[in-house]
Amino acid sequence: MANQKDISSIKNNIPISEKYMLTIYEASAYFNIGVKKLRRMAENNEGRFAFYMGNRYLIVRTKFENYIEQLIMDEFDVNEDE
Q: For the purposes of burial, counting CB atoms within 10 Å of the CB of 14, is it exposed (0-12), middle (13-18) or buried (19 or more)?
């Protein structure tokens, strides 16, 4: 049976790009978005790409990537219509 030290060692050795869920700080570093902005985005989009687990928000990396791509495409479509 793995003890707590083994689990935290494994968790810290996984690259952020391979993690399914990211903390606000990991997502902030990975996506180059400020912590406060990302926390606000998580609060406003809970269930879409963010989940509140225990006492922290977790970001589902793949869903957040899709969300960002959709924002870019929506912005691109608006600019094309003008």
A: exposed
Which tokens in the block code for residue 11?
A: 């968790």
The DSSP output letter for 17 is: G
CA distances from 51 to 39, 57, 61, 79 (A): 11, 5, 11, 32
CATH topology of domain 11-81: Molybdopterin biosynthesis moea protein, domain 2 (3.90.105)
pLDDT in tens, 1-50: 556 666 666 667 888 889 999 999 999 999 999 999 999 999 999 899 99
Alpha carbon of residue 53 to chain centroid: 13
Model confidence pLDDT, tens digit, residues 45-69: 989 999 999 999 999 999 999 999 9
Each domain of the chain, given as residue ranges in start order, spans 11-81
At 74 the three-state DSSP class reads: helix
